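F.,

This is the one I mentioned.
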């Protein structure tokens, strides 16, 4: 091979390497924040039957609720619009991992979840409560529910299930796909009670006053609820959401979004038990 041929070979090899590098760059994963800004779309998980977080109008298929107001506020700051994807508490983590959504609301940051997704700082701190069926004695403690004859209805994959199994392992725990189904089990007598976050149970009992009664067993159990996002090296999206969460929580705006959703069924701040954190 003469010198001219050698130079040509080197040039061609360099061009091939550059083209390969360019192709890899084009297919490299884009950060969530960059994708949202580029497409102008913020994809979120929405969950039916989870008032006041989410409410679906069956006539129009339109979504409303506290988390929708929060999502619209976040999207507005990113120059995007909200695109909902119907999911469940158990599936929204999988939807994040599968890149179907960019944001999951009301996610409790458990150690197991932290291995597969990331979180913002808390948007709220929630208290756990119990809805008892009519005629069932209101429990003063979680230990009173921890008996084989007690039937507890929970929605599978939720922190409601986690709390029931952690504090009432001896009880007969009935798992249902949705919280609506778990509540129906209480109303029809198939279950004695339902474990729910206070923010949900207060709303449920206001809409269905004949369902049963609200109990706040001791010890008082609380957990932070956060925004769930995909784990990625680029921290800008996480930092933005954490700043958003801290800002709105400290100003009381997050509470106002929840109270606004409560107003749709005639609830006010005075209806919230003093023991309940919000």
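My design for it:
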């Amino acid at each position: 091979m003469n010198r001219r041929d050698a130079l040509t070979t080197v040039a061609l090899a360099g061009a091939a390497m550059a083209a390969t590098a360019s192709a890899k760059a084009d297919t490299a994963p884009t950060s969530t924040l960059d994708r949202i800004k580029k497409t102008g779309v913020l994809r979120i998980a929405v969950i039916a039957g989870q008032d006041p977080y989410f409410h679906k109008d069956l006539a129009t298929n339109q979504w409303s609720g506290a988390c929708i107001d929060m999502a619209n506020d976040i999207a507005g700051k990113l120059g995007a619009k909200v695109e909902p994807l119907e999911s469940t508490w158990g599936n929204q983590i999988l939807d994040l991992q599968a890149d179907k959504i960019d944001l999951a609301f009301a996610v409790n940051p458990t150690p197991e979840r932290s291995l597969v997704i990331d979180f913002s700082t808390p948007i709220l701190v929630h208290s756990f409560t119990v809805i008892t069926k009519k005629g069932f004695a209101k429990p003063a403690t979680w230990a009173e529910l921890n008996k084989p004859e007690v039937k507890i209805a929970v929605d599978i994959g939720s922190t409601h299930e986690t709390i029931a199994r952690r504090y009432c392992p001896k009880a007969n725990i009935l798992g249902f796909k949705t919280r609506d189904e778990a509540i129906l089990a209480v109303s029809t007598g198939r279950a004695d009670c339902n474990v729910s976050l206070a923010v949900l149970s207060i709303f449920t009992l206001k809409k269905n006053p004949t369902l049963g009664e609200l109990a706040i067993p001791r010890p008082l159990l609380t957990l932070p609820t956060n925004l769930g996002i995909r784990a990625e090296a680029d921290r800008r999206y996480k930092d933005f959401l954490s700043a958003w969460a801290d800002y709105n929580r400290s100003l009381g705006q997050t509470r106002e979004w929840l109270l606004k959703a409560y107003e749709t069924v005639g609830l006010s701040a005075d209806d919230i038990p003093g023991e309940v954190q919000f």
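The chain has two domains: 32-124+225-271, 126-215.

Talk soon.
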